Amino acid sequence: MKISHEFVQFRGIMQSEVQMQTISIPMRGGGAIKSWADILGVSTNVCIILFFYLFEAFYVMPQFLGLFGQSVHFLVTTWIAYNILENLRLCATTLSTVDSLPPEMQQPMQGEEHLWHFCKICQRNVPPRSWHCNTCDACILKRDHHCNFVGNCVGHNNQRYFIWFSFYAAIGSGVALFDNFMLAHKHGVGFFDLVTANLIIFNAYMNPGRQELVIFYRIVIVLAVNIFAVLFPAILFCTQVATVRKNSVMRDYSDRTYDLGFGNNLGLILGSRRLWTCLAPNIKSPLPHNGTRWKSKRAV
């Protein structure tokens, strides 16, 4: 079987690093989140992140570590929290809409009209891999999905930030979970006590004067939220890794039309510096094109 590569769209691909750096990533201003679900999702996200960061640093760790240990733990968790919050901010504020393209790139070149498809909602032709989002009320370049927890569509320009946001959210929550299990063990709370959380809360309600029950159920609630905070972003991250491997999107996970190999796929999504972008969200890593032109892999 012979594999051939062809371009399925016009403009936007830059061959040199100098050219890549000329691509401008559009950002949106504050107050642009329109959906109440987005506002609630982002607010919940930030509150949970800050709660666990402060709870572990100033309540849990002083019970187990000395000054040096606390300092190391504080530095590590601060770096993780920065990566979570800054990747969240950039994912929420980076636009991947077709309207964010320069005007001259919002129309197909002569002879390439067949490569675009028509959006009935926007009443216009849009590039390949672009699909309409009802929440954003716009067509999104290489739309993966709309995520209420970042308040934005995950698409061509901001998928990198979403990947590392979910990665660090899972890592940070995992560190917090380890710390909280130590706290739970200290107070005699076991893992399987989570199953009986309702009974514990009921007992605490019926016996409000028993301080140990109050502490008991508070720890159980923290552990339950913490476990969810680990599993949910971990599942998101694994899903993103799976789509990167195929260069597909969540709406069409099995599609391998644009799969150019894992290494090349990483460059298309993370930019020229690829996995180095995991170190910090402010590392410059230009994308190879503007989201209107995609190389496909076709079996002949």
From TrEMBL:
Where in the cell? Answer: Membrane
Q: What EC number(s) does the entry state? A: 2.3.1.225
> Membrane topology per the record?
Multi-pass membrane protein
**Reaction catalysed by this chain?**
L-cysteinyl-[protein] + hexadecanoyl-CoA = S-hexadecanoyl-L-cysteinyl-[protein] + CoA
EC category name:
transferase
The UniProt transmembrane annotation reads: 36-55, 67-85, 161-183, 215-237
UniProt keyword annotations, A-Z: Acyltransferase, Membrane, Transferase, Transmembrane, Transmembrane helix
Recorded hits in InterPro entries, A to Z, give: Palmitoyltrfase_DHHC (IPR001594), PFA4/ZDH16/20/ERF2-like (IPR039859)
Q: Which GO terms describe its cellular component?
A: membrane
Residue intervals of the Palmitoyltransferase DHHC domain: 116-250
GO molecular function annotations of the record: protein-cysteine S-palmitoyltransferase activity
The UniProt similarity line reads:
Belongs to the DHHC palmitoyltransferase family.
Notes on the domains = The DHHC domain is required for palmitoyltransferase activity.
Q: Indicate what this protein is called per its UniProt record.
A: Palmitoyltransferase
